[in-house]
User: Fold these one by one.
Assistant:
Number 1:
Amino acid sequence: MSVTSKNQNMKIALCYKTEKIDDELVSNIKEKVLSYGFELNDSCPDVVLFIGGDGTFLRAVHQYYNELHKVKFIGLCKGHLGFFYSYDENQIDALLSDLKRGEVKSESHQLIKATVDNEEIYALNEIRIESPFHTLISDVYINDELLETFRGNGLVVSTSLGSTAYNKSLGGAVIYPSISSMELSEIAPINNTVYHSLHSSLIIDKDSEIVLKTKTDNILLGYDHLNKNVKFASSISLRLSNKVVVLLRNKDYSYTKLLKSKFVGDK
Ligand code: NAD
């Protein structure tokens, strides 16, 4: 599968956490990139090569957020948990040669969009609405219909790709990323004879909208590794956006194998 029609002149940006990746590794990778006939270019890349763990990919996506329509991402994993990677630290040659020959799989992942007070916020994994000081009270609407009045610590709305992240820790289902959907999961819901919520994760289709009408001030709105304080949000709309991240994988990559290696174990 061809990545670009002019792979020879492909411009590559490197993205990594300077405190986690040593200079020697970075110099080696830069030399390799040039030796394969690619150009190093951080400001206007065709491909962003991210090196590190999953957090590095999230940061790379937000760094190149305005260029998502023309940039593709590929990862070199340094560490043990890497959901967004299909090449290990010692596979830089394989990565560059696959990229040069266009022998990579291309996946597209829709970002989720929250609209709060006319501001749009985008995330690849999930959007979190949390109340650090008081019980979060929020009406939850699915496509204009009231589902419940939620009381608890917070609500997480994740993409299919993000279903293995925070969502999974909350007991949410893992969703194959090829299925476009949103999943709503609860953080520490209050459920007793007076207050009730669904008390289960809810998966909804790609065209649906979730609206949270919150009755609590001082909410923390988290999106991927980022956070924003929302003082008086009355309504937060969540839906899948038309912004797409293109992630390149090794041609032998399979999601089932990834799940097995990261969660189940190889024995
Ligand atoms: P980080 O980079 O240390 O990531 C935290 C953990 O989440 C790491 O173990 C990472 O491998 C894992 N992770 C991230 N995206 C993943 C995905 N799509 N599938 C499986 N695992 C994934 O911390 P950060 O930089 O703050 O990253 C933000 C992400 O951390 C958030 O998007 C959220 O999903 C995750 N997170 C998880 C929890 C939890 O599980 N209780 C709590 C807070 C944040």
Number 2:
Amino acid sequence: MKISLASASSRAGHRSGSARGPLALGAEVRLVLPAHRPGERPKGEALPALAVLGRSNVGKSTLLNALLGTKVARVSQTPGRTQALYWYRVGEKFDVVDCPGYGFAKTSKEKRDSFEGLIESLLVGVPEGAGPEPAEGKGAGATAALLLVDSRLDPQQSDLSMALFLRESSVPCFVAATKWDAVKPSQRVRQLRTLAAAFEGPDRPLLPVSAETGENLPELARLLRAALSPASKE
Ligand code: GDP
């Protein structure tokens, strides 16, 4: 079956350093590639790759910085920016791919198309022989995906579309509901139920997290590391 983001929608800075965040565990984190073209991946042997996705302003940069324990992620992406996938290598063990934020109402069709091309090729992979030049590591899709949703908001259409696309692309997926510290304790049970009904599945855990307080970051990092370890591959 041909999977595309468009069909799912219709239905539903170079910094590096040794990092102490719970996902990096002291390993060096470095930007290895800003990928502007679909299918572009770091050269050499492909490592397990985690695609990190979410609407603009969901708190993706802040969460990545907290998980990796270093200021790797670019601060807020402005709508006018060029679309690129930022590949960070963590201790030569796995890659974290910071994907462009989506969901800006004013995004042009051209920009949406480029976003969809980049994301689809990252998640689904590029068929053998496709594209202008063969590159090492080309072909394979991401090992796992981390979908970020804003825990303060009811499920958003663009997030539901992305969740559907991820389900159909069969990439193991984790959902983190960000900014959990900003949800009043009296509203937490109801809000978590709403988010879980929309995004959680039997093989798709959802965790409410806060980059501000660190709540649930070690648990999230543990799940992600397990999914990215070579032993977890069949
Ligand atoms: P991005 O566009 O998805 O990369 O989002 P940013 O990381 O730039 O964050 C967007 C806004 O959300 C900023 O004002 C952050 O300070 C805020 N934010 C990010 N994480 C948290 C969090 O855990 N709790 C709260 N209360 N605010 C957060």
